Every structure is written in C-alpha cells, then in structure tokens.
Amino acid sequence: MAALLNLNPKAEIARQAQALGVNIEAAKGLQDVLRTNLGPKGTMKMLVSGAGDIKITKDGNVLLHEMQIRHPTAF
Question: In the chain, which ranges are E strands?
Fold first, then answer.
C-alpha cells in the first residue's frame, strides 16, 4: 500500500470515495424497499423462496433476513 501511495498519493482517497459511493447506493436501495413498509399505510411484501415457499410480511427485519442480501450495508 505504501508503494501505491508513493506512485499516486490520491489513490487511497479515490478508493475511499468509491467505497463510500457504493455504500450510499446500497443504502438507497434498501431504503426504497423498506420505505413502503413503514407507517400505518405500509404495504405488505410477498417473498418467494427458491423452493417456492411464499411469505407475506410487513416486518422490515424479516425482509432483510429473507432477501439474502450480501452487501455489508444491509447487516
């Protein structure tokens, strides 16, 4: 890493900014899914597993666990 900084001192800053951008986009995606569940007029979501099992839920926690999201922002 030190060699990279000697060649390009702004490389680490660019990587941090890129990682931040990826995390922000992931959080916005989660927000879009979960926003409609909130409040008294929240909508139900239907989740279908690979085996064909169907779950209908309004609970954001269940959605996050059942959606098999692999991004660290979701955890």
Answer: 45-48, 54-57
